[in-house]
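Appendix B. Chain record.
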Amino acid sequence: MRTTAPARSVRQRWQARLGSRLLLTDVAVVLGAVGLAQFARFGAISDADLSRIGTSRSVSYTIVSALFAALWLGFLSLQNSRSARVVGGIEEYRRIVSATLQMFGLIAIVSLIAKVDIARGYLAVALPVGLAGLLLGRGLWRRHAVEQRTNGAYQAPVLVVGGESAARAMAAAFARDRRAGYRVVGLCTPAGAVDGEEHMDIAGDQVPIVGTDTSILAAIEQTGADTVAVTATDYLNPSRIRQLVWDLESLGVDLIVTPGVEDVALQRLASRPVDGTPMLHLEKPQYSRATSFSKTAFDFCFAVAALIAVAPVMLVAAIAVKLGSRGPIFYRSERIGLDGKPFKMIKFRSMYEDADRHLSALLNQNEGAGPLFKMRNDPRITPVGRILRRYSLDELPQFLNVVRGEMSVVGPRPPLRREVEAYSGLVRRRMLVKPGLTGLWQISGRSDLDWDESVRLDLSYVENWSMLQDLVIIKKTLGAVTRPAGAY
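Structure tokens predicted for this chain:
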């Protein structure tokens, strides 16, 4: 069966608009960088000449700047730095850096071979200014795209195909990460609609089941999808997927195939073809690296620096706690750390002194999921405590736990003993690393997260640890603590 798609889908139109804006931004940045370099080095745009060593031949630096700009933009294009496949991800930035360094490397080699004396001050301005401008411009457009996607725009309608549980998991992944730019418009499962159930609940939305995994082309026509995402299903064997690729090509529809694993970071994946068949190799979990000496050293140095920096804030908070209500300044709560070892986690006291004795009377008002106890309007919290919790200031003394080696700056949420006693075998993997003062749970919703999502994020961190990820989480934490969402 063949269907006719519009010349350009909604996705292709907004991708083309975004690509044009990126091109204009790149041109403006590169021209500005070489122009500024020429002005900063020579004080004028047209008064300097580039000479070849040992000859009287020379050429205006204005022409040199124009050639540099064209070459720079050419390298960016050769690296496909504006490809829709990489825009919005780390790969986009990597390609920009790679193109820039390759271009300047080529200039250095050519100038050496041709004995051309290029002013070092000119290059010393053009390279960092241009590279920083390109990265900043892409970052701003990336933020714009994320805002648009979060508000429902720049979304590619996607049809999810696969077994019921696998399709549900894939659709839920798209729903959780709206910034990725996909909106699920339909599902195709082996059985199709069963027992009159023509919809599947995905993150609170009712997504229609529009067919089976044998009627994908008809489902595309029905839903208007311009992307098909295929996950585990018996019908779509390798030969049928190849036929699907050919069918979708004529429609201008993209195909995504998932290997059926989740929460595996890019650095743990490697694709290696075997007899023409792509094989996805998964490296072992990274939790051993998350307890390495380098992470421990980073934690200690960061915590010491942080304690020095926030000492005035902690002093004010301590005085406020002491004057706000009767009781000690600090609250020491038993938590379970690395390998199940208990320790005393230090916080500024945010509740009244006898709060623990009233917990049993409030259990029936628990708003948390799983073994967590959470309550938005907990009467045990003091007025000062609400302010401290609002900005996570009550957590600052935990840097002392980090210095003592009981916690990390970044890690899974530190659990209570009663929570650990309710853990399943899977959840216990959270204790393979030290609990953290912040983590993926802190930047992804804090107390608003449900239990399953909190566990998923913690396990993802444990198995995919990297120092870069820690730095990103720390950066995002600074923004998360200024927002009231989930802070209770």
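Further analysis of this model is presented in Appendix C.
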